[in-house]
Structures are given as structure tokens and as C-alpha cells.
Amino acid sequence: MTRTVDTTQELAAFLRTRRERLDPDDFGLPSRRQARRTPGLRREEVAELAGVSIDYIVRLEQARGLRPSAEVVEALARALRLAPDERAYLFDLAQQRPRTADKLATAAAPPLARLVTDLSPLPAMLMNHRYDILAWNGEMTKLLLDFGTLPPAQRNSMWLCLLHPEIREFYVDRERVVREGVAHLRTAWAAHPEDHALADLIAEFTAGDREFARWWGERDVKVMGRGRKEMRHPVAGLIGVHFETLTPLQDPDQLLVIYRAADDGSRVALERLFAR
Q1: Mean pLDDT across 210-216
Q2: What pLDDT digit, counting tens, does each position of 114-143 carry?
Q3: CATH superfamily of 7-93
Q4: Burial class (CB in 10 A: 0-12, 13-18, 19+), 111
Q5: What does the buried/exposed string (b/e) look like for 5-28 if buried means 16 or more CB atoms within 10 Å of the residue's CB?
């Protein structure tokens, strides 16, 4: 059964997992490890750090229908020492972060599609928050595959990493690439609780891939704007690329991804590949 975000339940689970990951020693709290039945901070310790009542924390973690204010969300984020992406995720779950787009992107904005083409010879593609691939140039086709030959439902970078027989083995550090993708999807899932297509996609991945299901359950959240990937290309051999992800101001739900060679050897390999 397809399920979009139950923000109350997910908020409760997220708060519990983040509380349990904390080390009491990092907060200068009394060392009473023998009395601690569960890892991390106690609820009363989080309540004291956030300046709220213990009962309030209990009710939040039991998903009893509370909707914390922006001030309380900020206090909880500080108390739990959340990273920036985790803080944004918490604000999304509490429905306290303003939406930047009213309409979900399912097709490439024409100016952005033209920009993707104009970025040649740099491999480039346009995606939405689900990782659906909306537009691409010829260099990206030669580097990865011809997305135009795939059914629209398979033009999704996470689907390709998990289920496509060639792309599944394409990345040298596949676990890191997939885990980063899972963390991005969880962030998008909270930011778009009304997106049934995204919920369907996550349900398909969870049912079809044990690794995805396990990593999804860890509730890691992170937006990867840039980084490096190592690829095993069937023609060009080992290639390292740096990627940069840009968000257009007028189309904030569309993501422009650009690849660049990470070293001289990769640059030469890409030039030969694109010249074929």
C-alpha cells in the first residue's frame, strides 16, 4: 500500500533516533551509564536542553498529535545538535519551513533544457527532487546511457543505481553513492508530503532492494550539492568526476547536475569518449 509522509509518526521516530545517537559525555552530563537502559540521552535531558517539559518530549516521541512551533523546533535542533540538513528535515516534518514551490516539477523548464544542451562538452542533466531525469545532453548519454531508450518510469537516477543491470555496477563506491541518494530522497520525502509518486517510488525501492530498505530505516538526511564519483566505464575505463548541483531561482524544484573530470587521466578519457 502506497503511503506518503505521516509527518507526526516520522517526527516522533526522527526525534527518537537522533536522541539515541547522542553521547551523554559530550554534554557534560553525569556519567550514569550503568543506569541507562537505552543508548543516547534520556528524554528528560533533551527536555532540559531544549527548555521544554518532559511531558512535551514524551508526547512528541509518542506521535500524540503535537505540532511544535518554529521556536520549539529550533530549540530541539540545537538540543539534539542536528546537522544543517537534519535541521531542515525537522522543520519540514513540523511543517514550519515555507515551501519554495507550489507545483511539482515533472517536465524540464524549456530554458533549462536548452541550458543543458548548451553546457556541452560538459556532461549535464536536469532532475527533479525525486531524481527523475528530465533533460540531458549528448555527453551525459555517452558517459552513462541513452535515457531516451528507457521507459519514462525508469528515467530516475536512483532506480538506475538500484535496478538497472549495467548502472548497478557502474560506480566504484556504490554503497556511498546509494546511501547519499537515500539521504537525499528522505529529505525530499519530508519536503513534499503530498507527492504520491515519490511515495510509490520509495515503496518500490524498499520492497525490491534490501540495502535500500535498511539504509532508509536509518533515517539519514543529507542534500548532496557537490562531490566526487568514480565510475567504471565499459569503453573509457576508470573515470573520476566532480559533480555540482545547482538550483535555479525560478524553478527551485529542478536540479541542474554538471560533471567535470576530476583529474588529468579522467579528462583525457572523457575527451576520447566524447570524440567517438
Answers
A1: 92
A2: 999 999 999 999 999 999 999 999 999 999
A3: lambda repressor-like DNA-binding domains (1.10.260.40)
A4: exposed
A5: bebbebbbbbbbebbeebebeeee
